[in-house]
Model the fold of this input.
Amino acid sequence: MTVATATRQAKAVASHISKWYGDLEVLHDINLEIYQHEFLCLLGPSGCGKTTLLRILDGLIQPDEGTVSLDGEVIQGPPRQAAMVFQQFGLFPWKTVSQNVAFPMVLARVPQASIAEKVRWAVELVGLKGFEDAFPDNLSGGMRQRVGIARALAVGPEMLLMDEPFASVDAYTRELLQGELLSIWERFRQTVVFVTHSIDEAITLADRIVVLKAKPGEIYHVFDVPIERPRTVESVRKHPAYEPLRQTIWDDMLAGSGRAV
Done:
C-alpha cells in the first residue's frame, strides 16, 4: 500500500490558486491537497506552471488568487517547516561543501555546535563524507546536487520541495540519485513535492502524480502509483504496473497538450 492511500491527512492545501505574469495567466484555479508523509510529483510540459506552483507552496511568491496553508495555517512567506532543493544546485562557489550545507542554519542563528553536528550528519547521509572541504567547482554535477539535498535535509524539514533536482545531470547519475532519494525518503518520510518532466522519474518516486496542462496551468489528472514500497529504480521498472501506467500518463499528457493520441 502506498503512503498516499494509507494516510489521507493533509499536510499542505492549495485552494483556488491562480497566478498571472502581466496579462499571462500561468496557473488557473489550482486545488490540491498534499498528504502527510506522501511523495507527490508534479508532472507536465514546459510552461505549465510547475515551478511557479512549487514556489507558491514554499511561500517564495504569492498567488494572485487563492491561498496555501501548511499544517492548517495560511503561509505568507517561506515556512520554517519546509526546505527547497533547486534544479541549478544553488550553491555558493566560494563556500566549501560544509559551509554551503551550514548556510541556512547560520542565517537562522542556530548554535554553532548544533550546526557542526547537523552538517556532519547530512553530508554523510548523502554520501559526501571526505568532501567536506571541497568547493563546488571541484565536484561533479551529481555531487553538487547531493550538497543541495544535504543542505535541505540538515534543517530537518517536515516538507521537502524539489524543483527538477536531477535535470542537470546525466542519465546514469540521475538514476543513482533517484535511488538514493528513495532510500533517504524511506528512512525519514518527509512530505515531498517533486517537480519533473519525466514520466519514468515520477512513477519511480511518487505515491501520486499530478499531471498539469499548460496555457494556463491547470490540474488535468491525478494518478495513484500502485507500486508497493520500499522501491528501487530497478524494481519499479520490472513491476507489472509500470508500463501500463506509463502509457496511460503519456496518453494523458498528449491529450492535455491538445495533440492527437
DSSP finds nine helices and ten strands in the chain.
